[in-house]
Specification:
Two copies of one chain form a homodimer. With 216 residues, chain A is mainly alpha-helical. The first copy, chain A, contains eight helices and four strands. In chain A, helix 5 runs antiparallel to helix 6 and helix 6 packs antiparallel against helix 7. The first copy, chain A, is elongated. Chain A starts with 16 loop residues before the first helix and ends with a helix. Strand 4 of chain A pairs antiparallel with strand 4 of chain B. Chain A binds a DNA duplex (30 and 30 nucleotides) through helix 2, helix 3 and strand 3.
DNA sequence: TTCTCATACTGCACTCCGCAGTATTTCCGA
DNA sequence: TCGGAAATACTGCGGAGTGCAGTATGAGAA
């Protein structure tokens, strides 16, 4: 038996997940690029963050592939482009749902600083941990606002709230987990002598606990 | 008075966080690029994933900036490069710890599929949720192995285990949170009529609950 | 009427990635 | 002891994605 060459599935016609993210939004209604950018920032940013710059290029590729159409419109002298999904686009979207998704990845520079904290001072470590905690509580506040808006009577897509409820719940739990962890970590390091000297802190006990939790 | 030009702090001499990730490893001991790549895969991959390709280019930039030195060695005919941190490199690493870290971001394509699940079938949604759950439990198993290895008597950096304990604990809790969420989500959708029709499911109740949790 | 903010983009340089390609060495089993 | 697989040790290329700067017009508020 050969050892695992399952070659990373090479997506739907070679299109990126970003393409399908935008196609997904286009399946709800037509948008201008600017609106698309705002919507990505509001919702998709939580699990598929992309720079605004990208959001001006990607729809052009969708049009080139026949998954969307572009209509040039005007607001006075100012031109704008409105994108609309095609039947081919809807079909591609459905098929994309069947393909295995890429593995989750996250970039967390602050954890890099925690991991290499022994190159600096205990004060630096405490500052980094506090910043992590702040970021998490800020995001929780943002999620609260978002959820409130979604519940308002004039919210944009009432027929899709069930999916919003699923996704938002994950993000709230993630942020809660991070905030809790940061609080715990701050508590633990308060007993350390230095960033490279945990004093009497029982890290072995913590690790043993994690080893069993993770395998159970 | 001008409005907000606090220009994003433009990292330590314009170097990327990836540069400091490798510099952090080099602060522990000298490594060859290949070893560096393996170590990044084993540890940093959890919070700072980078492709192997990148890890062959980045050390060259460190050398160009005087933060590391490169020594050409040989294993028989096969050449290899060993990188070593310089005093300037250690200094830069310390100063990097003082700068605010970039915001956390995560790419989670499967959640994109959950969010746009109403473009497809309920079966597709269930498959996606199961895959998410599997990925989380796989990672928990991986973390258990890693933790076990770290506790072994001949583990590589015994003086740094306290930092490992902090970081691993976050990852375990994150994966647990995702696995729990996926289980809950599978349970909820089992009562749905279709991906675009949640039947009698009380998503409003879920959202109201989240709104208060997130703001509390 | 002036100023600010929102709208609506493009170009450029750079980082980073995936893939393919090219060697050599080491190890393990037949 | 010989052969093949896996580990070691890289480079080149094209494309995705980013951040920043730059260029307009329109709408609303002071």
């Amino acid at each position: 038996m050969p050892t695992v060459p399952p070659p990373e599935p090479s997506r739907q016609g070679g299109r990126s997940a970003t393409a399908f993210a935008l196609l997904g939004l286009l399946s709800l209604r037509p948008w201008t690029t600017y609106e698309l950018a705002r919507q990505v920032r509001r919702s998709l940013n939580w699990f598929w963050p992309r720079a605004e710059r990208q959001l001006y290029d990607e729809p052009k590729r969708l049009v080139a592939g026949g998954l969307a159409t572009a209509a040039k419109e005007h607001t006075g002298m100012r031109p704008r482009t409105v994108y609309k999904i095609t039947p081919l686009g809807r079909h591609a979207l459905k098929r994309w749902l069947d393909e295995p998704a890429a593995a989750r990845t996250s970039e967390f520079e602050a954890m890099l600083k925690v991991f290499f904290a022994d190159a600096g001072s205990l004060a630096q470590l405490v500052t980094t941990l506090s910043a992590i905690q702040h970021e998490a509580t800020d995001r929780l506040a943002e999620l609260a606002v978002l959820t409130g808006q979604a519940l308002a009577a004039d919210a944009p897509f009432p027929k899709r709230l069930h999916l919003g409820a699923l996704t938002v719940r994950l993000h709230v739990e993630q942020e809660e987990a991070i905030a809790r962890w940061a609080g715990w970590a701050l508590d633990q390091v308060s007993g350390w002598k230095a960033a490279d000297d945990p004093g009497a802190w029982d890290y072995q006990g913590v690790l043993r606990d994690l080893a069993t939790r993770a395998s159970g």
